[in-house]
Design brief:
By secondary structure, the protein is of the alpha/beta class. The protein has eleven helices and 13 strands. A hairpin with a 2-residue loop joins β2 and β3. The two termini are about 10 Å apart.
Length: about 300
């Protein structure tokens, strides 16, 4: 059995050899079906969130596309839905069910726990205690309840969370062009590695310290030579301070409401966020692949169901 998580930007697969992450943007002509062929021969359990990609007219079209692509290689694939059940064909319940699969898996070991899963694009912040009340929640409802915070480690535009930085002693407003992303800030600050910066860069250029600094400098309409490395790092730090405040405040609010016994942190942001929220990094402490938690979870759930 393999677990598959089809996101809007990344395809994540968990098998007996570990975690495999493929950059696979669904808003362009996608090679999703082609990538999946390399895993042929296994049974597959699948979750998704990529149906929201703006290449699709609506979620129904996106779900149908993903199901068809998966079934080309895995005709008997099981798809986990927001009803907490597995399905064998396209249906509305499949939309954005990856977070619930993670909760469904973790709650069996940590019934009084809470999850922070912060990946490339979003942060899922969900208490486990009232699982039945979580069934059927859409991303819109989760946004309203504070269970979904739309910021992540790679793809968040810098200017969406901060609007200025102090450069050379002067408060300098940001432009709102998509010049730099959270991946640039986190790379410069040492929070992520080359291998973890899996999404496309805003300018389509390479991932390197200098390239990230140059993209950050453009946030204030400058070349790197104009503001220097210190100026570009100040932009990264300003973004990071804003992001960690938003995420940590959301975790604190959810924890105040649910009083969890533990906070379990997954996603590529787990090493930096776990200490900030007093949580447990799932990879470091438990051996669960935090960078592909939903794919791991749906695999575990499907295997448990088969037994």
């Amino acid at each position: 059995m393999i677990g598959i998580d089809v996101g809007g930007a990344n395809l994540k697969v968990v098998d007996e050899d570990g975690v495999h992450i493929h950059y696979c943007p669904l808003w362009r002509e996608s090679n999703l079906a082609e990538i999946l062929t390399q895993y042929r021969g296994a049974d597959a359990a699948v979750v998704m969130s990529g149906e929201l990609a703006d290449g699709f007219f609506n979620k129904t079209e996106g779900i149908a596309y993903i199901v068809r692509a998966v079934q080309q290689t895995f005709p008997d694939a099981l798809f986990y839905g927001t009803d907490g059940e597995f399905h064998t064909s396209a249906c509305p319940e499949l939309a954005a069910a990856n977070w619930l699969a993670s909760v469904d898996c973790l709650r069996r070991t940590y019934p009084d726990g809470m999850m922070l899963d912060i990946g490339s694009t979003t942060a899922d912040i969900v208490p486990f205690a009232k699982f039945e009340e979580l069934r059927g929640l859409t991303d819109t409802l989760r946004l309203q309840r504070g269970y979904l915070v739309y910021t992540g480690m790679l793809r968040t535009p810098v200017a969406t969370l901060a609007n200025s930085a102090v450069i050379g002693g002067v408060a300098t407003p940001f432009s709102t062009e998509y010049f730099a992303c959270s991946g640039d800030a986190h790379y410069v600050l040492g929070h992520i590695t080359d291998a973890e910066y899996t999404s496309a860069t805003p300018d389509g250029k390479e991932v390197s310290r200098e390239a990230c600094l140059r993209r950050l400098a453009r946030t204030v309409c400058a070349d790197l030579e104009e503001i220097g490395e210190a100026g570009a790092v100040a932009i990264a730090e300003t973004f990071w301070n804003a992001q960690k405040t938003i995420v940590c405040d959301a975790v604190a609010k959810a924890a105040a409401d649910a009083a969890p016994g533990s906070i379990l942190v997954g996603g590529i942001g787990s090493p930096v966020f776990a200490p900030l929220v007093g949580g447990t990094d799932l990879t470091a402490a438990v051996g669960i692949p935090a960078d592909a938690l939903p794919a791991f979870a749906v695999k575990e759930l499907a295997e448990s169901r088969a037994q």
